[in-house]
Structure prediction request, 408 residues.
Amino acid sequence: MIFNVQNINIAEYDYPLPDERIAKYPLAERDASKLLVLKDNGLCEDYFRNIGNYLPERSVLIFNETKVVRARLLFTKDSGAAIEVFCLEPVTGGGDYQLAFAAASPVEWHCLVGNSRRWRDGKLSMQLKIRGKDVILKAERVEKTDAYSLIRFSWEPANISFADVLEAAGEIPLPPYLHREAEPSDRERYQTVFAKYEGSVAAPTASLHLTKPLINKLKEQGHTIEEVTLHVGAGTFRPVATDTIGEHEMHSETIIVRRQAIENLIDNIERTIIPVGTTSMRTIESVYWTGVMLFEQGLEERNIHVNQWYPYQEREYLPPAQESLETILKYLDMHGLNALHATTALMIAPSCPIMITKALITNFHQPKSTLLLLVSALIGDRWKEAYRFALNHDFRFLSYGDSCLFIP
Prediction:
């Protein structure tokens, strides 16, 4: 089964996307974006604020509560050379984002470095003001690999948290395809209204259309909201550059799902579970495969990681969703945990069993992207029909663009 999926040609997931169709800025009102609805073998067009009219009765909507951090730091060397340091994931705090953000000086992070050849050695520095105090931030490259640089950040006064440092020094890391610098308005608009846990370098963009009044309206209509966390990594912007997807190394991301969320999924497993965004879908499907892994390998494992090809292995028995989720509850009980912490490199592509997701709210994705593969895994080749419709009806594409509701 792995062999077949790995031979998928990424050229089959290409489509023409003129630059003028990419939304460079959000609309003035979040829920004024257009909505493309695919259901019952038909397509229709509306506005996102009316999405409740199209959701199946008593749907369960899954929100990703991750918060975009100002992960892009711009240093200037004494020579005048500009060096960009892009924080990817923490080493400090054992990789726990909340511990890393709360840490005092020094901290270490895996980072991408722009204009790297101009920074061979020595420390970079910049001057900041944090709550009226003068602060000097320094960056030192400890190690360099093909994938990232290990950067040690230090600052004086040392008792200030790294979260405060990023708040003062960092910029919102907009997607590279916007071809523009972040502006003050992006600090609010490239963030969901319910963002809570810092750790992403990209927003869960399908949720950018939601407003608090609309969320309340959806609840009044009988729909349930459940929250999970997936911290989005920079790899989400990386298109598949190889001919077949088997040669593409999927990026790894951190997921955190509370016990209560797992219990609620079990209680509502027969209802229509709809992730809001590909990150939410990747989270709940990774949770399912985590349960399968614990079912197959035992509950002793501490460092849980879902491999990108794990779902495609031949199996004599594949547990139903409820059994898998109940296995995770046993694991949490055994280890005295209130939440599942794991990493996932799951690649959701055609032929991947979709075990919890029943429908999907999402934006329009880049050609030849793993996110387009994910959409195809849910609705098959009908993504081509939907994208043709969107291109022919003036929909806006990518992160700040319009939205879709896909009900297989």
The radius of gyration is 21 Å.
